[in-house]
Amino acid sequence: MLDFVKQIFGTAQTRTLKKYAKIVAKVNEQELALQSCSDDEVRGKTAEFRERIAAGETLEDLLPEAYAVVKNACRRLCGTEIHVSGYNQKWDMVPYDVQILGAIAMHYGAIAEMQTGEGKTLTASLPLYLNALTGKPVHLVTVNDYLAHRDCQWVGTIYRWLGLSVAALTNATPHHQRKSVYESDIVYGTSSEFGFDYLRDNSMAQNREEQCQRGHYFAIVDEVDSILVDEARTPLIISGPSAAARQMYDELKDQVAHVVRLQRDICNKLATEARRSLETLGWLIEGEKPKLSKEQEIEKREAVKKIWLVSKGTPQNKILKRLKEDPEIRGEHEKIDIYYHHDANKEERTDALAGLYIIVDEKSNEYEVTDKGIAAWADTHSQEDKTDDFTMLDLGGEYARIDDDATLDEKQKIQQKVRIREEDARRKERSHNLRQLFRAHLLMEKDVDYIVAEGKIVIIDENTGRPQPGRRFSDGLHQAIEAKEGVAIQGETQTYATITLQNYFRLYAKLAGMTGTAMTEANEFKEIYKIDVLAIPTHRPNQRRDADDEIYMTEREKYNALLKEIQTIHGQGRPILIGTESVEVSEKLSRILRQNHLEHTILNAKNHAHEAAIIAEAGNPRAITVATNMAGRGTDIKLKEGVAELGGLHVIATTRHHSRRIDRQLRGRGARLGDPGTSKFYVSFEDALMRMFSSPRITAFLQRFRPPEGEPISAKVLNKSIETAQKRIEQRNYTIRKHTLEYDDVMNKQRTEIYSFRNDVLHAENTLQIVLEVIDNVCVHMTNKYLVNRSIEGGWNPEALRTWLMRHFPVTVEPSLFDNDYIEQNEVSKKAIDIVHQTLEQKLDHQRETIQQLQNMMQGAPQNMNIQPESILQEVIRSILIRCIDKAWQEHLLHIDHLRTEVSLRSVGQKDPLTEFKHEAFRLFDNFTLRLQTDICHGLFKFEMVVPPPQSPLNVIRENIEEGQKENRTIPLLADSRIGG
């Protein structure tokens, strides 16, 4: 019935496409009329459009004409030589109707799903031009610096021809040039550069001249699924040196490595024993297994238990992998696993695992040190240093013991408590370093999670395979990996500013995107970003032929089949693109190809700088390109002459990726714009996806239908199993992203409030007015705290308020001032405010006199160098405010980090960690606000302007003034000032 209704009325997608197709017709009609105009007349349309917008016309009114102008400009540029990325190219692009369709969708805030080679880069130029006419900030977000720079040069030609300015924002852009980049009508850049500039503007800029961004109006995100989905699990963090660092990675690394070696040794021993037993029993022969006696069955079961133990200790053990190639042994292993997970057998399971030093859980990416591991760790220490690093101090109990010790006086008790607190902090830090070192050794793989380049640990993005220079694993994990790999260990850092990509892109008034693969994540885009996905039809029919997956029992068989396929296709003269999941696999495959004398090019995180050049050659006849998941994303593999006749590009994948979307992206590298092409995926049961997430029913299937060595398995149940495994991982990753966002949403409200206050300070003409409001708030808050209700005992305590005022401000408050039975709360707060205001005004008058003295001392300076005491004072106050805000906010972020770490434990007490986090974060922000306001008040009454001593050379001050006037910035008199804190 539903299908019948769709046939009559169409789906939401088809109805939208029909509506937009009518606009496309108008665009083409307008463009036809423009063809008879001169170049100057077409260029003049930009100024005309701006005038019409100023007069009240909307962008929707202008859309057909504006898009027609861009299309016409492209037509006029045809044949023009343009210098792009080091070489000249001839412009040959005029937007097709489907590109105009995608451009309309993006203007209306949708994601245009356009297949590879359909010209997304050119498509984006139309909505970018239209929205830039408003004069508001318009950004195109790309996946890497190369594409930002290339597209700015290439497509930027259109904007420049039409009179708009365009600039590229890359990691190499100096900070002092970024403001001028953002002043451009259209800016191309990466998500991290836009996001980090936002954080720097709002948490690090010391004056408004240092802020570079000018708002967030319209953004188009290229490869939107990569940026808004894959990268969104990791928040952007600006960090700096930690004030109190006690890292002990160097001290602990050798002992951790020793325990990990013990674990590997015992697992190798168990695996060898198991193999020997099974060999003796005749269970390692192919085909039907021999019948066993009762004693032999017991021996076999013990051998399988050892295999199970190895899978829990070192899941990547080579002997284990080889044994599990046999479906019968794999089946027995799964039976043991199911047996141990029954509640009745949990004690037996615990006893079995007690033989290991460490238990590793691949699925959850976690580990656990057993009692045996803890004992082995203790044995690595000398008899004098038997510290229990796995037990924390009970501070409450320790304090109670000290309090009960009659031999100690009060001073000694305080000293003992301080010593215990310091010991507790040292133990916690040591324990944390220890946990991260174990994680680095057990769960972080070189050439999979990171590479070592130029003596530094460089993170590899798990989704794109690209290196992430400048980024670091948080919470000390990066230092632990540095210790593991023997490179220089960097200092510990603390968070200065952070935001998730989701919340950054939510800042834009209008957000759109484009990619070849978005439909699988359409629900997430709708739920989190409130944007729809529209599938745009292709300009020419897709001619790629996707072969069924070839599934092998073992990795060895899979690589043998891969090699045969490569040799066959290479012999036909066709180019081949081979997609791998990691640097390690790409280099392994490269070694196999070299051994078989097959010339090839490798593209991974270690040589990503040559990506454009490698991809440019990937369409040549007989070319073999081995690439990690980056696979030239954002650049098309164009077929060279004669290749299409041979069958086009052949895409081979060495495994199924954790996400179906990444698989589609790899397939989409071939058969662009109606070119021919083929693709095939090779999978083995040793692949991580199949090993960790496939259904146990698959083993039962294999036990019945185990094919001969080297032959692939093909069955619908296997394809369904792979898809189910991928869906499980996609759901898990979605949960992680949603979890990250839910926590950051709490912080986002706080971040918005504090950034708003900080910007008010930076842009305020009168900072003194802000200060007076802060003083008012503090005084009212403390009055409300001490003077609540006269009818409650202790609810009306004017003496406490008086004491607080004199302790925090240099004021004298007479005892009788608040001591009146009929005085109201608001009257008391007004009196307190008046006293503090008056004292502050006296202090500021004194500072004005000091500045005037300095003016008098500089009478020899040129006449136009008048120092205005009031403006200097305003800048001093601004500096105090910014310093207090930044210091308090950084401390608050540290508290929030600790809260995030600890709050998950509350689930043990049947409490929702997220709800608990919301309550605790609100309380912390309340404390932060009061502490910030109090710190500002302290800073105002402590700072002191000091006149330089007579022997101080005044010409230094004059030079500072002259330099300040040349650069049109604040005169740096604070260099000769003292600000107490």
Explain how this protein is built.
By secondary structure, the chain is of the alpha/beta class. The protein contains 37 helices and 25 strands. The strands form 7 sheets. Strands 5-6-4-7-15-3-16 form a 7-stranded parallel β-sheet, with helices on both faces. The longest helix is centred in the C-terminal third of the chain and has 48 residues, at 716-763.
In a nutshell, what does this entry contain?
The chain contains 37 helices and 25 strands.
SSE order and pairing:
Elements: H1 2-9, H2 12-34, H3 39-43, H4 45-54, H5 59-77, E1 81-84, E2 87-90, H6 97-107, E3 111-113, H7 120-132, E4 138-142, H8 145-154, H9 156-161, E5 166-169, H10 175-182, E6 186-190, H11 191-203, E7 218-222, H12 224-230, E8 236-241, H13 249-280, H14 294-313, H15 318-323, H16 327-341, H17 346-353, E9 358-361, E10 366-369, H18 371-379, H19 395-404, H20 410-443, E11 450-453, E12 456-460, E13 467-468, H21 477-485, E14 493-499, H22 501-505, E15 510-515, H23 522-529, E16 533-535, E17 543-546, E18 550-552, H24 555-571, E19 576-579, H25 583-595, E20 601-603, H26 611-617, E21 624-627, H27 643-646, E22 649-653, H28 660-667, E23 676-684, H29 688-693, H30 697-705, H31 716-763, H32 767-786, H33 798-808, H34 825-857, H35 869-903, H36 913-942, E24 944-945, H37 954-966, E25 977-978
Parallel strand pairs: 3-15, 3-16, 4-6, 4-7, 5-6, 7-15, 17-23, 18-23, 19-21, 19-22, 20-21, 22-23
Antiparallel strand pairs: 1-2, 8-14, 9-10, 11-12, 12-13, 24-25
